[in-house]
Amino acid sequence: MGQWPTRGATVHVIQLEENRTTTIELTNLVKPTLKILKVDSITKNPVAHAKFQIWRASGETKTGDYHDLGTFYSDENGEIVLEHTDPGWFKISELEAPSGYSIKQADHEFYLAAGEEKTVQVENIPLSALVVYKYDRISGEPVEGAIFQIRYIRELDAAQGYELDKEYKTVYVQPGKTVEFEWENVPITGQFQLRKYAAEYNEVTGTPAGAPLKGAVYENGGWCKGQGSYHFLIPNAAKAWGLNVEGCKASEPQRILDALSQGKLVVAIMGRGHFTTSGHFIVLRGVQDGKILVADPASTSRSRKAWELSIILNEAGKRAGAGGPFWLIG
Fold first, then answer.
1. Cα gap 158→167, rounded to integer Å
2. What per-residue confidence (pLDDT) applies to 33?
3. Can the peptide bond before residue 126 be classed as cis, meaning omega within 30 degrees of 0?
4. Is residue 5 part of a domain?
């Protein structure tokens, strides 16, 4: 008599018939591979010598006892690789961060299936860092391509389309703290010159045809070449139409809800997220079942959807000018 299969084995029932050959094909899945990638939380560069403890539990249940697989250290590429391990529930715990770093999240739990190659990225926070953010001073949009020299900070080469800021700025980096520094650039805008002349002889004033005229008043709109619109376009346009307008911050959600409940419109400048990859104006037009109705000039589908206010607040432009990123109108 054959031996009864061990627990967890796959059982195949085969019916054998006289004078007939029966063939059964069995396949095996490749054992999975687990890679832990340790990176700097700011630069995303690999971090070596982080110490981890790794456990594995049964693949049948998450509540089973964990088996200690040992202690591991990230290599020069920031990697710990377990090839051809057994599938199941895994728990990894960072025990010690490398010198100059702190642990951001110590424990991670997940399921690793047979045949799977899984990468788990784990970040360390540098104990001291300097982060410089570069922005357009008018539009508030981020600017790429500027080059800085770190000591006293001075801009060496401005991004294309922006004026060079030659001012020296002092930044103090303290142990255990990350310093964030914001720097604005003035965009180089096109210039034009208007000259006002009399088209013909004026019998009242005696001004001859072709004579230059003083005192003419012109208006310049909110268009920003290569950037879209200056943020002051919204409050200025509202005032030009005789509408009351008030600026509002993302930290004032109740003011937004109160304005919408009073039938007012709320214009928002959005940053990267659900509505745009750079910068984009939308209009908040009402509240339905606790969610916000919008009018998005770039998307009818987004305009038909009701949105959580938290999404709009989190994705509103962080560097809005002219009282934004919200303007209450009405």
1. 12
2. 93
3. no
4. no
